[in-house]
Amino acid sequence: MLINFQKYCLLYLLVFLSFCGCKLNSENKYDTWSSYLADKSVSHYSSLHEIDTNNVQQLKVAWIYLTGDTNSAVKQQIQCNPIIVGDVLYGTSPQLKLFALNAATGKPIWIFDPFADTAKTKVEVNVNRGVTYWSDKNNDKRIFYTAGSFLYAVDAATGKLISSFGNEGRVDLHDGLDRDVKDLYVVSTSPGIVYKDLLIMGTRVAEGGDAAPGHIRAYDVHTGKRKWIFHTIPHPGEFGYDTWESKDAWKYIGGANCWAGMSLDEKRGVVYIATGSPTFDFYGGFRKGKNLFANCVIALNAATGEYIWHFQTIHHDLWDRDLPAPPNLVTITRDGKQIDAVAQITKTGYVFVLNRDNGKPLFPVHEMPVPDSSTLVGEEPWSTQPVPELPKPFALQFFSRADINTLVPKSSQDEVREKIAELETGNMFLPPSEKGTVLLPGFDGGGEWGAAAYDPATGYLYVNANQVPWVLTMVKANAADKEPQETVAEHGRAVYMNNCMACHGKNREGDGSYPTLQNINKKYTAVQVAEIINNGRRMMPSFKQISDNDRKALLTFLLDLKKEGKNQFVASDNKEVISKTEKSPFVPYTMTGYNKLRTPEGYPANQPPWGTLTAINLNTGETMWHNPLGEYPELTKKGIPVTGTENYGGAVVTKGGLLFIAATADAKLRAFNKRSGKLLWETSLPAAGFATPSTYQINGKQYLVIGCGGGKLDTPSGDSYVAFALE
Description:
The protein is mainly β. The protein has a five-stranded mixed β-sheet, with no helix packed on it. Strands 2-43-42-41 form a four-stranded antiparallel β-sheet, with no helix packed on it. Strands 3-4-5-6 form a four-stranded antiparallel β-sheet, with no helix packed on it.
């Protein structure tokens, strides 16, 4: 009788907790950080709570690991969100060495350098945001990660390559894309995700007119063999093929790639993909139509790669509105029922909340009319774009004269006003033009690759965002009335406009994110520049695809090289000519660069906040709080309220009531009350933490660790990982 009474009490307790919205199992599965961004649902959430709102101010540095990758000549970064398996932490250095540390002390266990043997490996250093762990019952433990164009399988215990995987431990990402891309740029900056014995991978590709397709592939974790592929640019006979007006688009269009990562519902056996724009990013005359599966959330059968559903967030993208983050797998409450969903943040500041089983929006989404007339020859913008009713945008989407920064002198405001008068404003979906348009959110969002954090205990989604205007200006890539022949330097300038100007500027001036190319002949030799062009460096892709003729012309233009023999290049003032028939193909328009709209003092041209942190209740779509994130110390000293800064990297949210985030240009790490948004603690880092922290527990002690690499937004580079814990 007593046993039955206990059963009834237990049953009553379970029903009561379920009614209250508590999930007994949800807390148990969030106590590790063994996957990128915490878990395969990319929650950024931890059920650890030793560190809480009452003691967070007692956090101290527990250990610091210096990677040793210091290079003052290069703006290097750490974007890696490290994983912790047992008592071992795995991460990557600025030069993409893979390392294993004792997670309690920060002492190295082993280091793997993919570029140690340069005789076998072309050094193509890029950024890396994380690694993937896999193990089986036979104690086979592997770390998968990418460096340059190669996917590596490394023994998690020893740091040695697993020779049975691929070709002596690695797979070339150029292979298996069902198209010849051997001379094109193909890397992976975000880690893949494991489903059973499959490693599912996305890629980063170039964004110009000559780019590889961003197809999704799954590899056998044992052998490295490709098991399935999903064509994000559909081939003939595949679903979505008819959304491209050109029936040969699959042969030459690139992009539509998953560069920001993905999420996985292991119970359903479904992987959720977020894709970027098709190439060329800003001109679509050669890719008319809606362009599936670019700018989409896609649900695929994780075992086979078969299509289940999709939702497109931008039709015929002309603004580089890549989906910047992996989809968050969430559960929302609607009319007393729980619904498994996908929440996708965007660069435009929208959050799309979709049913996880069928992709249908859980808040109304309307196809809103947008400007659809273009001044660019051959361009046909799409006439509508999807806009959700809820949640409300988490970032500003409009900039006008009334929004000009008033923190600077009137003369500076007038200068900004004059700039705006020369540009088109009024709608974030204005088609690109030669006159120039103001984009807000800018090219880097809105939301960005730091991704959103989701708290299953509250149903809140936390998003950090940028609110800085940028300018998009198109120019003709090659005037139709140009003479049949041109000098080598003139041809080199045309090559520069088609391949380099978008990042380095019309006059090679660069900006805070991309270096100046003016006077580079004083810093680099022709051989060094040619090597960088061929192999890429950091965020710069390789340009192996351009012809030898174009490469020589580009070097002549950049370096003013002198003719010293029949096999040398031609000086820029030499009148030797080059035939147009030798040029590489290119689109009719390019853009003048990723240019931020700033005041003469270097501040964003609009009113602050310039960086924000927002909490959204996904059950209701309501914004719970919205704070500026980051500060300019010189403005704060003047008594100006916190303005926020541009920010890169994501947040960690915990059961202890906290939200941790760095991400800002002021090199601070902060802790907020997750319910109210109140700032509870902050500390200075050795370099800006443009990465997502990780939290974990060793022997009952909770740690928080972050990579401090700087290197963005004109900040100094660093090479350390810093861990914090309570004393």
